[in-house]
Amino acid sequence: MKLVFQYGKINKYNPEKGFGFISTPEQDIFFHISDFPATAGEPQVDDKVKFVIVENEGKFKATRIERLDPNPAKTRKAEILAHNKSITSSLLSSFRR
After folding, report:
1. What pLDDT score does 96 carry?
2. Confidence (pLDDT) at 50
3. Stated pTM of the model
4. Residues of the chain with confidence (pLDDT) below 70
5. What are phi and psi of 88, to 5 degrees?
6. Which pairing describes strands 48-56 and 28-32: parallel, antiparallel, or unpaired?
7. What CA–CA distance (Å, rounded) separates 61 from 69?
8. Which residues does residue 7 pair with via DSSP β-bridges, in sequence order?
């Protein structure tokens, strides 16, 4: 069975209780911190995320939550610049020998 990811933005999060809500065009979806990847750090309001919705006792819950890059074009540009800098440094060091 193929997972269908939904997209939304965290609109509420209570770190003391470990849960919050993700806003989608249709509705707000509950999530628990245990469904947020530990490596991603604490969820923040306005984080863009993708997730899978499951039904839990008649209510919907977000699982398999992944934080999305808030500015992918800027991130990609930074990666390209870093790569180009490493190539330039490598070429220049070859000429200096």
Report:
1. 65
2. 92
3. 0.69
4. 1, 70-72, 74-75, 96-97
5. -60, -45
6. unpaired
7. 22
8. 50
C-alpha to C-alpha distance for 31 and 34, rounded to whole angstroms: 8
String of DSSP letters for the chain: -----EEEEEEEEETTTTEEEEE-SS-EEEEEGGGS-GGG-S--TT-EEEEEEEEETTEEEEEEEEEPPS-HHHHHHHHHHHHHHHHHHHHHHHHH-
Name residue 50's beta-bridge partners: 7, 66
Q: Give the span between the Cα atoms of 94 and 48, in whole angstroms.
A: 43
Distance of alpha carbon 66 from alpha carbon 7, whole angstroms = 10
Encoded tokens for 80:
């390209």
Tokens 């919050």 correspond to 20
